[in-house]
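Protocol step 4 of 6: structure prediction from sequence.
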Amino acid sequence: MTSDRSGNGKSTFSSIRSGHALTGNKSPHEHAAERFATKMGDYLETGRQQSKFDQLVLVAEPHFLGMLKSAMNPATVRMVTDCVHKDLGKLPADQVPLVLGIQTKSGLRVIA
């Protein structure tokens, strides 16, 4: 195969593996979301290690939910019993269980 364009000398595969191809076009908002997903993943991992919960229900808009699950430790991901693909970020924390139809019971904690 021939091409009129000269190559840049970099393999597409090596760019993807090193992350350059994936991070070059991200907005500041996307970078902030990734950092937040990493912090939440660390927070949940610490909670798991300290036996703060025995199951998790994750609620987030679909794109962020994917980032969060990717940032989580596999042992913590195994504790996820359900994922709700909704953006409830603008709701007051005390309204989240009502919107989701969750009966508030002792020990239920909403992280907002």
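Step 5 (inspection) to follow. Residues 28-87 form one domain.
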